[in-house]
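Dissemination and training. As part of the outreach component of the grant, students in the summer workshop were shown how a complex can be specified as a set of sequence lines and then modelled as a single object. The example used during the hands-on session is reproduced here so that future cohorts can follow it. Participants entered these lines:
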Amino acid sequence: MQKHWWHKATIYQIYPKSFMDSNGDGIGDLKGIISKLDYLQKLGITAIWLSPVYQSPMDDNGYDISDYEAIADIFGDMADMEELLVQAKKRGIRIIMDLVVNHTSDEHAWFIEARDYPDSPKRDYYIWRDQPNGLTSAFSGSAWEYDDLSGQYYLHLFSKKQPDLNWENEELRQSIYDMMNRWIDKGVAGFRMDVIDLIGKKPDQEITGNGPKLHDYLKEMHQASLLDKDLLTVGETWGATPEIAKQYSNPENQELSMVFQFEHIGLLFKPDAPKWDYAEELDVSALKAIFTKWQTELELGQGWNSLFWNNHDLPRVLSSWGNTGSYREKSAKALAILLHLMRGTPYVYQGEEIGMTNYPFVDLSQVEDIESINYAKEALEEGQSMESIMDSIRKIGRDNARTPMQWDAGLQAGFSNATKTWLPVHPNHQEINVEAALSHPESIFYTYQKLIALRKEEDWLVDADFKLLETAEKVFAYQRSTGDKTYLVVVNLSDEPQPFELDLHWKETIISNTEESAVLESKQLQAWDAFCVVL
Ligand code: TEU
Ligand code: CA
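and obtained this result:
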């Protein structure tokens, strides 16, 4: 299998609105990111996945793009973007851009022309119908918005300010590839591709994900923009299975490097229930089965996994599946050790490395995300109580991931010197912040730093196989073998002691958040014990 730089990389996701504010307007920006590159270099990450910074009315915080080749004023300008590329490169850090090409903003020039001049060739860049069908938006309501001028409806699988692009239009596709090539010429190292599994949609058949021409388009994109450029491309594909992930990431198919699949994330929700009907606790048996499937069916050379707990759309994993009380640090390390020693490219979301948590939103006035606001409106109309709506938003809402990065214990957590930030800073920034993390050698930060260094140095993390071990339900133990070496990873995903009967002896410890020799003697794992040893 040909090795690429991203096989041994760890990628750090930045949500620009919330990372660092350099000009005191309470909103993160590019100069703020540049000021924190030394911190990211110390963490050891190889690349930054930068959520959108393009021109946008910010209806969906930049995932509604009105100009793919201009920078939103709140983030700075193109000179700042080019400076970020230069300063990051000086520190050995690559920049991965967020490519949002399933839809544009309704303020994009293409859509304005398409809507205002129905006879324009740009009309076919979007999806217009005389009558809506049953398709619904991920942000509540119908996926069709009526347009007075033409008397037609246009499709929007997200907000009505995010009209879907018609990928059947060849001229549109070529415009996308040309734009990608100009960003590549600027020196970006790849793309995260927003809901890319939707670009093959067949709206009249109400097919959205995994449409018939999806892989044809990706192969065409690869030839037009990605061929032999050693870029990292990761598709956001909510509906992927291991078989479909092979189609995307088998190098012979010349499509993408890897995809984000969300089967493990699905355990946040009750089975077959709407997103807001969250599961009370983690089904560890299901988690083990899901990771085992993905680790074994996407075997080396046939495709490549991404590995993540968090992103800007998800509640903080520590609040969902860890412990935010007395075992906050230990459980955060346990979750990191469990994930980062599997096969795949790990992604660390801003603040995960210091154990940031969900925010205690009091009422809707504190909530900013369009997905949550639309959900609340629809749920209220359907008679749901505000208390149960706020309970769901506190557990599952995307704003949980978007509160400002916590740099220190000072005002606004060192994120901004504004009196009011665009989302409130978490009050627990007094204890949970980068400055405190860097000053404590046993902090979560240094566990992430060590895991990231291991990935860079150790070939076994790429080459070794994966085998799940039979253990107590709340214990997730797997071993990875390559050549004559076998590595054992053991994690207790609970607040209680768990039996550990495996009769094993080990030569050395790779990483640990506990006194692992005691485990052998007592045949018991203490709460949130996690370690990797060489057998
Ligand atoms: O997310 C796609 C997506 O499906 C998620 O919004 C998902 O529906 C929900 O958030 C899961 O809880 C991508 C971006 O990551 C997201 O931020 C954008 O809002 C969305 O596409 C539209 O661009
Ligand atoms: Ca700012």
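The chain has a mean pLDDT of 97. Students were then asked to discuss how this feature might be tested experimentally.
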